[in-house]
Every structure is written in C-alpha cells, then in structure tokens.
Amino acid sequence: GGGGAARPVPPVSPRRPVLPRPAGQGDTGTPRPRQRGAVRPRWARPAGAALAFLGGERGGGRRAPRTRPREDGEDAIILLLKRAKLSAMKGELAEAERLLHQALRRAHQDHNRQAIIYTYSMMGNVALMQGQLDNAEKLYKATMSYMLAGDTKEDDNAILEMSLKLAGIYAAQKQHKLAVAGYQFCVLTLEEKIAKQKDLSEDVLSDEEKANTQLLLGMSLDSYARYLLTINELPAAQKMYEKALQISNDVQGETHPQSVVLMNDLATVLDAQGHYEEAHTYVRKAAKLARDTQHPEEHMVLSNLAAILMHKEDFLQAKQVYKEALKQAQQKGDAASVQHIQEELAELAKRRKGSK
Fold it and tell me: Which portions of the sequence form the region Disordered (predicted)?
C-alpha cells in the first residue's frame, strides 16, 4: 500500500473517522490518509495484470525458441521492474517513475505486450501514490485497453481491480456519477462471476482462485461503503459494510485484521444513524478481537467504542475506555489519535457536566 495519496473528501463526521487505509496496491478504494505507523490489513493479493511476468516466468505454455538478444531484452525489463517496485516500496517514487519509463521504452522496442501491460499498471499505482489522480486514471485506462484488445475478458479480476481504482479516483475528484457507476459495475460483475463459479469443481477452478474473487468483491463493497459514508448515504453504506464483513468472516475468519476493521466501520455507520445499541454490539466485539489479536489499530477501535458509549450516555465507562485508548496511542506514537482522543475527553467532560 502506498502513502501520500491526494486529500480525499472528508468523512461525514470528522470527529468519528472510519479507520483509514492507504491508497495504492492492495487497497483500491477512495484514496484516504495513511494511518500513522500502522500496518494496514489488506483484502487480497493484487490481481496485477501480469504478475507471472515479474516473477520471471514467461506466462505459462510452450513457446517457440527465441534468439538470445530477445531473451536478454526481457530479462533487462524484469530487472528494471523489480528495481522500480523496490523503489516504490521504499517511498522513492520519483526513482520508481524513472525506472518504469525505461522499462516501458524497452518493452515497446521489444513489442513485449505483457511487459507493456505490467509496466503501465505499475505506473498507475505510482501515480496514485503520488496523488496524481488524472495521470493514474490515464495509465489504468491504457493498461485496460491493452488487456481488452488481447484475450482478457471484461470480468477478469485484474480488469475489475483497476476499475475499482478508477472508481476511487472519481470519488476523490467528487465525480459522483462516475464513482457510483464504477463501484456498482465492480460489485455487480463480481457477484455474477461468483454465482457462475460456485458449482465449478476444483480441477476446473481452484478454491484459491474462487476465494480471491470473493475477496475482491469484499474489497469493492468496502470501498463503496466508505464512499457512501463520505456522501452521507448511511443506510446504503451500512448494507455494503454488512456484505463486506460477511465475506471477510467467511473467507478469512472473524479474527482476521480486516474483519476487525470492518466490524468497527459497521459500528461507525450504525452509530451515525443513531442505532447505538447495535453499534455497541459490533464495536464491543471488534475491541475484544483487537485486544486478543494485538491488532495494530486497537487504540482506534477503543476510541470508537468510547464514542459510542458516550452517545449511549454511559459516561463513566466511556471515560475509562478513552483513557486506555489514549495510553495505547501515546505508546504507539500516534500523535493524531492522541489529539483526537484528548478532544473527545474534553467533549465528554462537557457532556457529563451538562447532564448533571
């Protein structure tokens, strides 16, 4: 996942943010601020258009023997792509971009279609990490055009993952109609695909491939839910979160970090609608699982639990939970959360005073 994404549309309630996710590979929703120092749980491995290419495989199947210079050309491209990937992981995005441009030039010279596709896809990710939304949009569209002009189908997971990234870009640009159309295309296409795959035997389609498609649907629902929350479409966001949580529980288990995040996010949207009891049930369970699994964002889940307790007017319990969240945030050096919790404690003191 990358950092430094463009500033997103603010959440519906700035005091009660949904746990943030970095934009980029592995999370294809609306670009959001990166969580300070936290490891972001990821939904699924990137579907990436040509991951086999970067691994040095030649795409499977038997090919005609090639002359040595062509082989050297492909190896040189793979080396450039690996160096670019490493630079991006280290946050050296200008260097990653420079290496990718070199790789793209060589791929075009060699007429290596697979390399062109993979390079465009990586360039899109780097542009997204830099907050260059217009550029990322063009690069993802170029990647998809190359893929669809070949034998890639419209419901291929790699196409759908890029479609989801495009929906996230439109959401960040406040292009509402395009964002909704993009999210709905991903969700509906994946639901249809999963229904078709359901009865296929393991020798036709592996359980792992089926699971990856389900996780991509979960990621799409989660991203769409976060967007719906930002535009205050709360009942619709709730429905998407419920479906995403069900998928995460079914495929990854309810102790998985992603399941804990989704329980917390579902509690947030229920609380925003005034469904305090139901919100409390979900967030209490999320807090317990976060503690049991040593979740990197336990302090944020606890802060959410305290806020919901405050809305339920359980002020004494809310204060205790906020203090535990504050202690953890200070230990983790999460300055933004420390400030947020201190503001909430001040608000809690005012509420307690007003209720007496």
Answer: 1-47
Q: Output the CA–CA distances (angstroms, integers) from residue 46 to 163, 307, 322, in the order listed.
A: 13, 35, 36
Locate tokens 């997204």: which residue?
A: 128
Helices of type H across 10-112? 51-54, 68-89, 93-109
Note the CATH number of domain 253-356: 1.25.40.10
> What amino acid occupies position 317?
Q
Beta bridge partners of 27: 24
Give the domain ranges of the chain. Answer: 253-356
Q: How far is CA 10 from CA 13, 32, 285, 301, 307, in A?
A: 8, 9, 27, 19, 19
Q: How far is CA 39 from the centre of its chain?
A: 12
Query: What single-letter DSSP state applies at residue 24?
Result: B
Q: What is the pTM of this model?
A: 0.82
Give the Å distances, CA to CA, from 165 to 159, 186, 325: 10, 10, 33
Asked if 301 and 324 touch (Cβ cutoff 8 Å), the reply is no
Q: What is the pLDDT of residues 74-123, one digit of tens each?
A: 899 999 999 999 999 999 999 999 999 999 999 999 999 999 999 999 99
